[in-house]
Specification:
- The chain is mostly beta strands and 111 residues long.
- It has helices at 37-45, 72-78; strands at 23-34, 51-60, 63-66, 70-71, 82-95, 101-109.
- The strands form 2 sheets. Strands 2, 3, 4 and 6 form a 4-stranded antiparallel sheet that branches.
- The chain is elongated, with a radius of gyration of 24 Å.
Length: 111
Amino acid sequence: NNRHQTQTNDTKDNNNISTSDLTGYLIFSDLKLPVKESFLNKLKSGEEKRQYFFICLLRNGITVLQTQVISTQELIAANDTCIVFPNRMSMSNVDINFRVKIDIYEMVKLS
């Protein structure tokens, strides 16, 4: 009973590329932030007197990208239910196990 054993190698090529050598490119555009209907109604009716501004930060490692600042006045003028950050932003050299943290900041202008 001679058994023939075949050894397999998971490497598909002999380029010796490790996963740490693999990087990619991320593109972000038209990020949307839904707004509660009750808040929108207060803005439209004038019940809410304060003006709000929003900015979005995207982080990957030491790379930090920012959107433009969007105000509640722009939201009402667009007659939308979402704050839309229209920027097109990109991150390069993103590793294979990337993580992107998205932070939204709100600033209030008191009347």
